[in-house]
User: What shape does this take?
Amino acid sequence: MLRRVLRKIKERVRDLQLQKAKQHLLIHTVSGHQPLQHVKEGRIHQPLDHFNRHDVSTFPQRFFVNEAYWQHPDGPVFLFIGGEGPIFEFDVLAGHHVDMAEEHGALLLAVEHRFYGDSINPDGLKTENLADLSSQQALADLAVFQQYISQNFNLSHRNTWISFGGSYAGALSAWFRGKFPHLVYGAVASSAPVKAKLDFSAYNNIVGLSLLNKAVGGSEKCLAVVQEAFAALEVALMAGNASQVTVDFGCCQSPKDSDDQIELMQNLADIIMGTVQYNEEGVLLSINELCGLMTNKSAAYEGEMEAYNRLVKLAQIYRSTSEEPCLDISHEKTVKDLMDTSLKSSRRAARQWTYQTCTEFGFYQTCEDATCPFSGMLTLQADTHLCPMLFGIPQHSLPARIAFTNTYYGGDNPHTHRVLYVNGGIDPWQALSVVRERTEDEEEAETIFIEDTAHCADMMTRRVTDRCSLKKAREEIEKHVASWLRTAAQEKMDKSSV
Assistant: This one.
């Protein structure tokens, strides 16, 4: 099932971060810095298939370079890896990796993932052409890009490369270091789901635990009311009250058939999933505000429909903040959107990402487990039926594809050296990352766990409102990066003195 609402929330988080980055830069510009002048955009023509020597087709891969802080010629190189969406010039102008680049005199690069943003051929989204969309090809792109930049900027072994990424791109950052250790010296992997999983029920389990978490404003009552609300909605649908539900939740269509009912459940679950995943990013309510809405005493919400009415209110708040006239719950429209292969908007990423879930990762956030706070209608079957429908990929082939991904990269026990895994305690994606200090055979894994923060929170530029745990975590990340650069410099001195 396409996470339509969750995707919109994610885009709004990205937009808000870009706005904040712009404000941050304006302040810098006023104080005499003009970092924008140093950013250049470029294209490299990458092979469409790195593993087929007969295929000479290419696609244009977009990247940004910022030389503002670079201590030429021997300063380090900080590579920001793009994930399942477009990159922006602000990816080399703002963020924690940029703060560190300024401190260490690094050359800043951001590179877009193949088949996302502008890095795609006009016919790239046709099913037969999506065969060239994979994480393996994306890593080969990074290796070629590394060589290209090294030639163009006359880089040598004296320039130490460090990669950065968050979420799927965080996994790419870790895997790039794992597969090409001679090209990248160290990697920061924030909220990185390095383990592929078909039935990712743990996601909603952690959403439930986060709604319980007192440190971020959760409570037992909050979780109970959310569960009660979804149960009440399910009862209303089963009783044939679709037209009342349509009015209550401001749906664009009446959820008469089961596909549309699942879509409605998914949209409403997405609002809560997005609240937890991006807690305190300022786009939606925070967990604290959501739980306030679900549990505060008020005469307006008395009676047996209390939980249901609070969920109705939550949907209204979502619609008004996202300026959506109605909640779109048409499954048919979802499928039609996913089948659209035109490149009308470079922001479109749903078709590509759905393809990657079908071929490599799974990551289906199901709700069939008793710990899930939402509706049991959100099943693995409902998620995976899109694979054969959109791409002709049979459902029974998914487990083997996902097993291959974990064999290829090592899952959540990857034996990588100089990869720093950073995760937040209320981020549902932590379940697929590396969070423990020691691996099975007592190897040290470099990890930072931030008790009370959400998805990729450490990647943002510092804010006055940041929690203490987040400030501490950033200092820890800075220590790791600084120590890698020191070790690299020491190794180079030792080599040259031989």
